[in-house]
Amino acid sequence: MAKGNVGAKSGLSKVNKILFIIFCILLVGTVVFVAVSPAKVAEKSGEGGEEGGASQEDVAVIDEFTPGTYGGIEFKTVEDVVNYYVEVFNYNKTLTAPYKENGEAKTFYKLLGDEKLEITSLLVDGKENATINKLVPGIMGGLFSGSPKGLSPSDNRDPQYDTRDDGKIDEKQSHLTADDVLACNVKDNGDGTITITIQPKGAELSFADKDSQGRFFNVLGDITGTVSQISVLSFSQGDANDNIKVLYQGGTGEVTVDTKTKEVTKAFYMMKVHLDITHANVTIIKDKSATMDLEYSNTFPASDDFLKSSKGITRG
Predict the structure, then answer these.
(1) Is the pLDDT of residue 20 over 60?
(2) Are strands 252-258 and 193-200 parallel, antiparallel or unpaired?
């Protein structure tokens, strides 16, 4: 039983180290390439590092909530929307289904999703290099392999292992509150389903279930603690806590619900993260500043191809 649990936790449990291994590779590559081919480097300002920093203004990127009746359900306030979302989340995490994992019978969440992680921007000293950017997907694909998970936040496909912080945080229950939400809305799809879209408030260095982002997304947690374990990365001034700033902001989740059964028919979560790294040393590269923009997404239901290719899982 424990062996299956270890296999199921192979995604975000390792993602921080993967990110900074990628960062080290790209930082060295970008600096070297810039040195030999400066003509191909584009300056960017106001997007992070010492050129301006990430925007601290937390603004809504979705339509505002309009009170009304959607799919036969009355929503008067944002709190009504959040309470319904929590109710739906909790119910769907009671639903299981039979699967086979590499031929062995298993019971997982009925609704499983995939996970994808993408670096959307890398700037070194405020500069971007198109050639290095083309290498990012290949490097990422070689180091990060997503695994099936339950509705976000979730750390597993198996309900009995869907916990964090050594079992102290139960991911089978949503702890999202109206105070965590920056914006939300509801859409009646006219087919017996409604779609709830939620944008949680921004947070810095988010931890599971500890803040607005951690109660909605699969957040990265203690990045600085992980970075301190990477021997090739150091800092010319201070330590990881002084030189790594992480901002979660602008991400949203969209969940479609059958109002008669309260089952989620599909969902998509997109978490956005901005990292500012200063005074970084990687091997011979000294005292560099960089920014990384990340997008981490979960799509439900996961495709049969994803289930099979990621963990050898088939439905039924």
Answers:
(1) yes
(2) antiparallel
